[in-house]
Amino acid sequence: MHITRWIFLISVLFSGISWAGCSVSPPQAALGQYDPATASSVRGIFNLAISCSEVTSFTVTAGPSQTTGSISNRQLRGENPSSVLNYQLCIDANWGGPCNTVFGTPPNGNALSGTVTRPGAITQVVFWAMVYGDQPAMPGWHDDYVVITVSP
């Protein structure tokens, strides 16, 4: 029996880590393993925590895939550069379903907005990633880099 493990990394780079008494903690997520022999997709949730010393409204946007330069066509590139997997960052409330709302930068995707409602409070911003199922790929690491921007 041959078991192949697939590991994914979507690195999220931040611009705007802090501003006017606000701080942002990096999101934590694990996408798990992908098996090209099945039609199953792989999903992972990202939680971004924003805290401010005063009531503050903010907007969060996601940039394009470093692999493709596109928001609508994001890809993870493998250790072997010819091995790529299509994925998307999503902001649908039902993270177990299809990705109907792409997380991006308008007009090429949707931004998230929120408010820190009281001084010192933490507001969670949630988005998720989905690696689409039924894609041929080579074993090993697949990764991509996306810049997440938080602005007041």
Largest sheet: 10 strands, mixed
End-to-end separation in angstroms reads: 53 Å
Beta-strand share of residues: over 45%
Secondary-structure-derived class: mainly beta
The succession of helices and strands, N to C, reads EEEEEEEEEE
Low-confidence stretches: 1-9, 12-16
Tally the beta strands: 10
Principal-axes geometry comes out as elongated
Outline the secondary-structure elements.
Layout: E1 6-15, E2 18-19, E3 22-28, E4 42-52, E5 56-62, E6 74-78, E7 84-90, E8 112-116, E9 122-131, E10 140-151
Parallel strand pairs: 1-10
Antiparallel strand pairs: 2-3, 3-4, 4-9, 5-8, 5-10, 6-7, 6-10, 7-9
Give your account of this protein's structure.
The structure is a single chain. The chain is mainly beta and 152 residues long. Strand 6 (74-78) and strand 7 (84-90) form a beta hairpin. The protein contains no helices and ten strands. The chain is elongated. Strands 1, 2, 3, 4, 5, 6, 7, 8, 9 and 10 form a ten-stranded mixed beta sheet that branches. 0% of the residues lie in helices and 50% in strands. It starts with 5 loop residues before the first strand and ends with a strand.
